[in-house]
Amino acid sequence: MNKAISGFSKLSKEEKITWIANQYFSTPTEAVALLKNYWNSDEKIQKLHDEFIENTITNFYIPLGVAPNFLINGKYSTIPMAIEESSVVAAAAKAAKFWSTRGGFKATVINTEKIGQVHFIYKGDVSKLNLFFAQNKSKFFSETESITTNMQKRGGGILDIVLKDKTDLLPNYFQLHATFETKDSMGANFINSCLEQFSKTLKEEAHNYELFTETEKDLEVVMSILSNYVPNCIVRAEVSCPIADLEEKHILNPKEFAEKFVQAVQIAEVEPYRAVTHNKGIMNGVDAVVLATGNDFRAVEAGIHAYASRNGKYSSLSHAKIENDIFTFWLEIPLALGTVGGLTSLHPLVKLSLEMLEKPSAKELMQFVAVAGLAQNFAALRSLTTTGIQEGHMKMHLNNIINQFEATDDERILIQKYFKKNTVSHSAVVTYIESLRK
Question: Which residue among 137, 280, 363, 395 is the active-site one?
């Protein structure tokens, strides 16, 4: 294709698919058939999915699995996980079962404060701007009452607004830095609506402020937007038990295991190259639950990784210690989540996932997500410090390789039997399949 297409968004779904198939595929009929093969047979459900985003042509499936036996704050739960990576769900379930007989997981929400900012440029006397803000702060609250009324009824709303001088970073740069409580909603639309009203109030009141010069009255709002960095919206998850209780099939010397485990975490605390992969393992669990419950995993990822760098160096999100022969492993992460609004009330599988979790509040969902991340991290570190990560992962990956080569049922039985005793690798599986087919 060597030219742009005009009016693509106005084409029907069928027309979009036909155009794409003819433009980019050597066998257009097969491409169309594949896309339609992933449509839902229920037209109502398909229409619902079509309207989630723009220019929809089909559905992209990600498996929804479950990890049972999570004992959290004394109560058992089964956690839904939407993810495509082999071994993640199995690892979470294994960690859940391990800790279910050792006191389970403890989870605590430390704070739920969210943040939004109005970024603006002001060229003038800073002392006058400070006085202006002090005199007009109440108006930012009163002029957003139509937006905040329902949220206030649920116990949320605007917590505070402060003026921040950021001129040390950029010339003439200031912020209205606002904090919010949004209860069971993630709150993005609520926060952004408040911020846009703040910007209108700011410009109108500045224009009418008698102490400002004409230049000072003409302050420029650059943008008004929530922040996905929520360092005061924190949840803690932890596990602990006497070192002796760590003993199991692959942990014959629990003291040695605990010490090695703590060392592995300490390495991730000081070495950014290791910390990134370490935290990626945590996010395997976090993202899977966030996605299954209809929340924004990109926002969660961005906020959590920023939090991992809050001290000026990227570091581990989890920590471990041994004190008085007690092993403790924990993490604290920022999570801005919701259980009402958005996809939580639209996507049928999201509603199912939330019902599986017994219709949690946003705080309870924060706990589930944090626990899933900690469980995933524990499972990975246990493998790394004992048998190695690849043994279990490649066994789970074996099915993907078998499916890639469209093995028959008879071949599948032989392949699985062979690799019970032999090391799994992509090349080894390919070689064995080729030998079977000769």
Answer: 280
> How buried is 64 (Cβ within 10 angstroms: 0-12 exposed, 13-18 middle, 19+ buried)?
middle
C-alpha–C-alpha distance, residues 293 and 251, integer Å: 34
Share of the chain above pLDDT 90, in %: 85
Residue partners of 294: CB distance under 8 A and separation at least 6 = 342, 343, 344, 346, 347, 350, 353, 354
**For residue 420, what pLDDT is reported?**
79
The catalytic position among 296, 347, 364, 397 is: 296
CA distance 288 to 80: 8
pLDDT of 316 reads: 98
Rg (CA), the chain: 27
- Name the pairing type of β-strands 157-165 and 318-323: unpaired
- Write the CB contacts of 216 (distance below 8 Å, at least 6 apart in sequence): 122, 123, 124, 125, 128, 129, 206, 209
Of 238, 278, 240, the C-alpha closest to 380 is: 278
Residue 126, number of CB atoms within 10 A of its CB: 13
Minimum mean pLDDT among 81-85, 168-172, 397-401: which range?
397-401
Element (DSSP H or E) covering residue 79: strand 75-82
- Per the annotation, the verdict on 177 as an active-site residue is no
Q: Choosing from 85, 245, 269, 271, which is the catalytic residue?
A: 85
User: Cβ–Cβ contacts within 10 Å for residue 92, how many?
Assistant: 32
pLDDT per position as a tens digit, 138-187: 999 999 999 999 999 999 999 999 999 999 999 999 999 999 999 999 99
Nearest residue to 243 via CA among 232, 257, 228, 231: 257
Residue 318 pLDDT exceeds 70 = yes
Tokens coding 332: 């604290």
**Per-residue pLDDT at 389:** 58
Residue from 204, 202, 206 nearest 128 by CA:
206
- Bridge partners of 119, per DSSP, are 175, 223
Average pLDDT over residues 186-208: 97
Say whether 143 is catalytic: no
Catalytic residue list contains 393: yes
CA distance 374 to 106: 11
- Any catalytic annotation for residue 280? yes
What's the token pair of residue 155? 């116990």
> What is the DSSP code string of 135-175?
HHHHHHHHTTHHHHHHHHHTT-EEEEEEEEE-TTTSTTEEE
pLDDT tens readout for residues 1-58: 678 999 999 999 999 999 999 999 999 999 999 999 999 999 999 999 999 999 999 9
pTM of the predicted model as reported, rounded to 2 decimal places: 0.89
